[in-house]
Design a protein that fits this description.
alpha/beta; 6-stranded mixed beta sheet
Length: 816
Amino acid sequence: MESTILRGDNQIGGSVVEITTDAGKRIWVDFGSELSVKEEFSTDRMLIDRMRNEATRPHAVFFTHIHGDHIGLLAYVEKGVKVYIGPVAIEMLKNIREALIGVEKDVEKRALLKREQDILSGDTTVKYENKQRVYDSELGIWYTALRVDHSVFDSYMLKFEIDGEVLVHTGDFRSHGRLGDELLSDVRKHMAGKVDKLIIEGTMMTRLNETVMTEDEMQKKAKEIFSKNKYAFLMCSSTNVDSLASFHNAMKNVDKDRKLFCTDYVYSQLQIYTELIGKKENREEYIFSNIERFPRRKGELTKEMKDHGFVMLVGKRHSYRERIRALSDLNPTLIYSMWEGYLEEDKEYTDKDIIRTVSCVGPNVNMLHTSGHATAKTLTEIINIIDAKTICPIHTENPFGFYMLDITNEMRNRICIDIDKINEAREEEIVDCRDLLKVREYDFSTGEKDCRAIIEKFPALWKELSEGGVLHPIIQLVKGDDDLELERDDELELCFRGNDSSSEKRVTVYYNNHEFFSVGIVNKKGRISFNKSHARYWKTEDEANDILSTQYGFVLNHSTDRYVKNFDVISLDELKRIRDMRKEIMETYFSLSHVYDYFKNEKLEKPLDKLELEKYEQQRLMSSNTECKNGYYIYDMEYAQPFFNSDVKNFYKLITGGLKQNKPDSLAIRFDEKGVPKALVFIELKSTESAMKGKSSIYNHIIGMKNYVNNPLNRPFIAHRKKEAYEIMRSYKALGIHNCDVTDFKMSDFEALDIELLVVITDNTPENVLSAKSYYDIPENMDKIKKTANMGSVKCGILLLEKDNFKLDFNKIIYE
């Protein structure tokens, strides 16, 4: 047996798989039309020609379900080719085609619809027997069809046993609908067991972090809407029987006499669901009892409708809009239960007619929809249960997303992606996708370079920072010294660094969240160093070099672009002189709106009102939040978190849709009132309106943080974050800095930390600069930010800080 994905390994919709037996029998799984593709770019014609060519024509087509992107080319199935399909699906499809024939005026299209009816009624069409292992003597194969949960009823997962090999094709499926409870046990019983190849859908791979609503949850929300709104219109696919059942049952629960009104076609479709599913299969939730055909006149309102209200199922045609307008005086609501992409402007998938219908209702629109496809969690469970030797993604725009699932490295190595084919299809792709597969070679259980736990990892540095050590004056400068009558320098903060250098372990002192200087041990000597990026704007190049080298003893290391100074002993007075020198350099830098870069010999414009304000506030935030009881303790700033290794950063870029590596502004521990650590918190701070938009927008930062936390491949790094927080805070306490007054540190408490995200929005800009809060206060921006924060399962709060207040108050955080 051989199998090939003819189409669908890098796109959603139009998937076709070809299986060839050793005896030369060709079998196709699905034969659908492409989604949202202009006719001139469609590859449908290629598949139709393949069907018509006797040399390439399949002997049979197994359809997984009746969505157009899977069965849309049914009319082109040649005579004599066997068709396999679900029994309820046949009746649903016949009813749809009958309705379309009644309104279709194009002669050629009517002929195609009649051709489909003939195929469905012909003797070459075979009905699936759910959960039955069947031998087909003509094809010489065994197959098993398993009915699965999807957004259209009578969808199937297929298992083929051919020539001593086993192939499973999942079709489209999910686990959060009414049939979902049985999915895992059914797959374990009927689909698993020495499977050679698994062809599995991955529609949700571009939405890995999305949390989907179950049908039961949607029914509860619909009940709330119908309770508050007596008159309602509903936009929902007529084949989405699960959702129609949710809305119908919600409506009856509000008022047992309220009716669902629909067209003659939909009425017939609901009767099919009632007879073949509700009654025949004894599924009461699929019995549609409260249904009626539309009133003859578009504005007609009977006494029954006025007293009990109504739900009207509408679509995108003009006639539906006329009904909505005719009843607009009732102040009706509309529930939109379809893909939200249709409502986006100026996209290839935009549906202007749907937008027009939704607009007819005005502002009273409720978005209430759930996906028809498997979440990352469900895909992971199915992959682990079936345990196939080879895993082939299909029906996905992001096949590489399968590497992000919570599966073992050994399982990842079984994923098979046609890299050459995808590179060829993605003409604008910058990276060679082969680079992405280096993820297979990385051991995600390691990552010692990722941890900055100073007590444990930097013994020499720790010794020199402690009292009597050559670097101890740094600690005295940052925290103050009562014995020396030395006040703490409130403008400076200290953080641990060094994971990015194998030769130098160091701590970094910050000023306005810019590196002030780094302090470390090199060859048993102390070293102070700082980047030349600020010095280059100070006075002239020669004068800067002369002052830094002659007066202060710094040497410019051209290989690292850093000024460095090594010493055996450093006095507190000398350190103060270096501090004052650095402050003069940096204050000059901060004060200039136009600077002359003497190293590059060019004049540069520096936007002070944006960059410097936000960095200043980031440091203020850290200095203002060192609470070890009932508050936040910020222990680090601006740390670029590693993921995998540098060789596979393009992989991350691709799977997150181009988002850059996430770098939160601050890392914090949230403590309860007893001083017990409860959560590791990733904090993003935004100060200006411009920072809320663009490539580094608040939306991208939220999504980036969620992707980082949700990515199972990053779990070792999350574990390192918790471990290093424990060690860093132990170090702060031992060194006496940052007000760390926790009385008892337990590693086990830190290992059990929850993960939280926090967006901090401030209002401190100069008069001529709009603040981040002013952007947030615009209702549509506020709604979009809250919606982004609510995506996925990771908790993300929003906190507004007024003017000069930088204290984080847990009780004021917005979670919606």
